[in-house]
Amino acid sequence: MEPAVDKLEALFQKAESDLNYISLRLETEFSQQFSDNGQEQLNPIKLLQRMNQAKVQFKNLAEQARVIHSRQQVMEKSDDEQYLQTSVPSVIRKETASSELSTDEEDKENKTEGTENKTQQESDTKPVIRGKHEFIPVDEREFLTVSELVRGRAKLQDVNKVYEVLFHHFKKNKHSSSLTPKDMTKMGLKVTGATGEAKLKVLRALKLIVINNKLAVKMA
């Protein structure tokens, strides 16, 4: 067994020696040939050497790039964790505070609107206080509180015209008796017919005048 191993080892040594000889021979011949022609850069041996050097350099650069990339990933992960620990809770606190502030403002606005609406409703439902010395016309809100069946086709402007004439008449003639439809017609008022009677009925519904069974009118 040992002679066979020794023989195989001798063959390897001879092959290695032959390869070294061939390599040296090629390098010498190519160097001499391309040096004589001034084309040393085209020497295949030199080209192979530069290619091998470039491979080694590229491998080293690739390894360095891999190491740098790994470090960047570690740093980015660390920065992300730090951001989540510091910035995100701060953002959440700000959003929560903003939401609470917005809710408080909405509550205040709702309360203000509610107060204004309540005041407006109270103002709308509050009856108009009229004296006997100053004429205050019926406004649209009062007019619309009267049933449509009572208002009929009477218009607010016409109702106020009748009311104003009657108000000033009884103010000037404090001891005047009730006015009949005929009396009011002489005063230029249209109080006959369905629409004319509706004007008087609106004033009666608002408790501004009193109408007796003979349709005679006086101030309430």
UniProtKB/TrEMBL annotation:
The lineage of its organism: Eukaryota, Metazoa, Cnidaria, Anthozoa, Hexacorallia. The keyword Cell division applies. Residues 73-126 are annotated as: Disordered. Belongs to the SKA2 family. This is Protein FAM33A. It is found in: Chromosome, Centromere, Kinetochore; Cytoplasm, Cytoskeleton, Spindle. Residues 2-101 form the Ska2 N-terminal domain. GO terms for biological process: cell division; chromosome segregation; mitotic cell cycle. Pfam families: DUF3161, SKA2. GO terms for cellular component: outer kinetochore; spindle microtubule. One of its GO terms (molecular function) is microtubule binding. Keywords: Cell cycle, Cell division, Centromere, Chromosome, Cytoplasm, Cytoskeleton, Kinetochore, Microtubule, Mitosis. InterPro entries: Ska2, Ska2_N. Residues 108-126 have a biased composition (Basic and acidic residues).
